[in-house]
């Protein structure tokens, strides 16, 4: 099973959008993410539907935040992305009637559910502003300014 980086990528984009004074086009975001603008628009659609971003067409258009970074949690973004799989563990189904396999699968599924609940509760407490603040601290430690508006970082 392939990993899903949409959550990480959209958190990255949203923090950049929070730092910009002008909209960012799908093309600019796509270049930063090394992907296609259509993929950006499709992925950002869930965030737009939830009211976290808006998009304007035409010259001077692009994506902007509609809420501040401290109003958006990791859980909000995760849910806007339609809750991508958090874990790649899957149960075996080679011997569906085997009581050992059934017991193993049950134990793994119970542990996965508990871990997912814990992770999602943590996502709910983390705001995008927390991540942006961490970024600012790292810049400060390097003696750099946080005034960068681009999508190059």
From TrEMBL:
| SUPFAM superfamilies registered for this protein in UniProt | Winged helix' DNA-binding domain
**Which GO CC terms are listed, alphabetically?**
cytosol
Question: Organism's domain of life?
Answer: Bacteria
Gene3D superfamilies the record matches: Winged helix-like DNA-binding domain superfamily/Winged helix DNA-binding domain
Query: Sorted alphabetically, which PROSITE patterns does this protein's record hold?
Result: HTH_RRF2_2
Q: What molecular function terms (GO) are annotated for this protein? A: DNA-binding transcription factor activity
Name-wise, this protein is BadM/Rrf2 family transcriptional regulator
